[in-house]
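Quick note —
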Amino acid sequence: MVERTIVIVKPDGVRRGLIGEIISRFERKGLKIKALKMVRLSRESAMKLYDVHIGKSFFNSLIDYMSSSPVVAMVLEGDGAVNVVRLMVGETDGRRALPGTIRGDYSLSISENVVHAADSAVRAEYEISIIFTPNELAE
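Predicted structure written out below.
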């Protein structure tokens, strides 16, 4: 089933110059980029993006980090896009992510783990609406 999802290259991925490498992995896999932009998330947007973690010990530092410098957000589309992207991204903790995954190849941290990816189609649509306007998603 064709679906869409969101991927965000986090501040460490942008700072390290990994944007092109990350985008090219998704393109080579066959996913289509439907929208793409560099943006600096406001604290409010970051809090909405990570609202599932409100109350957890790392929440405030995560919000500080995600709003500290620009990120690159993209909407990807393809057959089973959410699960395909999650497999490509790898485990949240880069120290445990398998080689060949984005986090496995580029991260040694749980906090600076290069990319964010939605964990379900419903969540993807919610997160897309936080960062992209309907106009930016128009065909």
